[in-house]
Amino acid sequence: MSRKDYKIGLIHATMNSVQPILEAFQVHAPQVTLVNFMDESLIFELNETGIVTKSMARRLLNLAEKAAMSGVDGILLTCSSFTPVVADISHLFDVPLLSADLSMLEKAVEIGHRIGVIATVEAAGPTTTTLLKEISSKKQKDIMIKTVMIPEAFYALQNGDRTKHDELIHQKVRELSIDCDTILFAQFSMARALETLDIKTSTILTSPEISVKSIVAEITKREIVI
Fold it and tell me: What pTM value is reported for the model?
């Protein structure tokens, strides 16, 4: 199979993640065929509970199984709030199953020392912070992490107010840039705010581009091994 023949399953928990990842694939891997699987009730429930429950994990597993049964070469979960679930279920599949943000977090630890995290889903903030600490511990690198959550930005985007969504994120970027050399946007849906950011600031990492390159690279690597 050549690289252009890859078929990748995308698992979404919110419509807000769909356009950013589709655009990233169009730019960085336009030859890939994409198959989308959605359960938007997951993000609404997560906003209510604040934690990923066993029921949510089972529903994500079910979506991943549907993707695998459709004959995809790899699966990408586009909602960073559910990243911890990937570590629990990825071994159940013969194709690579990657989370939305892990590659971005590894890059952040590699290049950053004072890392700012901005999340618009409250559960995503602590999840991202914990993963950064785990990665930095494995790499034996001391980092400082400052995390801010702005759920009102997520609700603004849900209600179609992109301008308010972006402005709230821009405000936090300005604040974090005072102390941080690297800033992370914790969710795919936030990447759009980078397009309207008109200030020079710290290095800002978003996950769509990095995720596209990572899932394609992982599929290719497994093919070479096989």
Answer: 0.81
